[in-house]
Structures are given as C-alpha cells and as structure tokens.
What we know:
single chain, alpha+beta, Rossmann fold, 2 domains, eight-stranded antiparallel β-sheet, five-stranded parallel β-sheet, about 25% helix, globular
Amino acid sequence: MSSIDFDIMVEQAERALKSVVEAEKNDEVKVIADKESEEIALAFHEACKRLGLYSELIPITGKRPLKNVPEEMAKKIDNPDICINAFQSSAEETPFRLRLIDLEMKRGAKVAHAPGITKDMFIEGALHVDYEEMWKNAMSLMEEMEGADIVRITTKNGTDLILKIEGRRFQTDIKIKKRKIGNLPAGEIWCAPHEDGADGIAVIDGTIGDLGFVPSPVTLHLSKGKVVKIECEDEDFRKRLEELLHADEMASVIGELGIGLNTGAKLIGNMLVDEKAAKTIHIAFGNNLDFYGGQNDSSMHRDFLIKNPDMEVIYTDGRKKMVLKNGDIVS
Length: 331
C-alpha cells in the first residue's frame, strides 16, 4: 500500500473516531483485528495516537472459524472506552461475533463493529461521508417513526411485508453511545420489530449477510414473525439459507428492520457497507437482545437487503404516512 493511501485511511479513521464514537482525549481503545485486516488496524492505531487516545491492538488467534471469545482475548478487553472490531467475517463466526460484542458492551465500551471492513471503504467508499448531514437525516426519520404501530414495505419485485413495531424505539449507529454498538462504516437506523409481528412476503434482491449478492432473488414467506418458506431458483443457495435460518430455534424469527442512509455507500456484496446504502432497507432474523425491546436470544443474526422499497407507516392513532418512496426519503 502506498503511503498516500495509508494517510487517507488514517484521516478517515480519525473522522470516524471523532464523529461516530465521539472519542475524547485519553480514552482507552482496543482494536481487535485479524491478519487480513492488519493495515486497517494500524490505520486506527495511528489515528488514535494523533487524537491523544491510548490504543492497543488485540490480534485474533486460534483456529478459525471461532465460536467463542478466546480466554486470552477476553482478558485484554478490560474496561475499555472504545472497542473497534476490524476483522474479516464468515457466516460460521456469527456466534463468536455476538459473544464478543456482548462482552465488550458489558465491560462498558462503545462498540464500533466492522466485520468485513476493507481498505477501499476508507479510500473511496462509505467512510467518505458527511456525518452531520447523515445525522440530520437519521434524526428526522427517527422522529417520523415515533408513535408508529406497523410499517408496510412493498417493492416492484413483489415484496409486501407488514412489521409490527409499536413501542420498539429506533436506534442509529451514526453516534455510538457507551455500552452500545454501531457499525463502521456508519449510516443506518434500525429497530427490533415484535418477534411475532412479521407477516407477508419479502423478495430479497440485494445482499445477504456473509453470503454476498444473491445469485437470483430470494423470496421469504413470513407468518407471525417467522420464516416459513424460502424460494430461490438456485437450489444450493436456498439449502444454505435453510441451514443458516434453522441454526437454532430463534434463527428464523424476525430480529431487525433497518433503513440505509449513507449516500456514499455503494452495493458491493458486503453487508457491512450495503445495509448502510441509501435507497435500501434490510430485515434481519435472529439475535436482537442489544436492540431496544429485543427479545430474540438466537446465536445467529442474518441480514437480508431489499432495494428501492416503498414504506408506509401506520400510527397508533390511525394516521398513515409514506416515509420512503422507491427508497428515497419522502420530505
């Protein structure tokens, strides 16, 4: 990597540390990384030094995929102010990632979770963004969601899905608070729908977490919050989804509704970025215990991306409002 590219990465890491995790001088930062993400970890390490933060690199060791947090790693995550999880991801490591996040939050950290992060995201991708503008859009949309009872999501591809979200407060990763989690790159709002409150059809025409772009559209049939049928022309891919969504009893139960707001994010087949892209929404199945009101304790969490959706909100007082049209925020 050229020194120019590395300098750009450090600059963007600084911006993220200041804007997203709101780092303060003398904060203690733990950067958890694997060998494949070593340059990214070093960029965060250098950014921390420039901002007057105390940074420690914690390497991921042991045979991959990991299922649990290694004891030696857990010992090093000792009451940090900020944790940055900068490593590559796989579907099989979902239990490890969830346990790592839980440990970091319990020890008081702001958790910037970045599984699958790449150098391109710093140099020309979703980390090049106007954080203040994105924050304003997030606050505006979250305000629109106050008092919502259900949302109806439709697309030209055939999605027609009802989600019950009454009382399930939205969160955002554009500002990460103590003992909370957000992603880098940042750029979404999300909530935990009622675990028995998802009915209809979702046609997935974007990305699926850890699996990349769908080979052909995936149709999920939902009833009372649970996936009851999966359709896809690619039979091998469909079987893989069946396996992942039945990893445990709650893996096929609705866990999240997310709305992408990052105008710098482009669809690249990496859910870390794709779920942040403007003009998309995503739903997820599995664990949501770290979301407001979430009650799904699955060992899995799998995101499914839908492009260019319409979204109508039906409020508890009977009002209706279209908040997304073809993926764009309705002003």
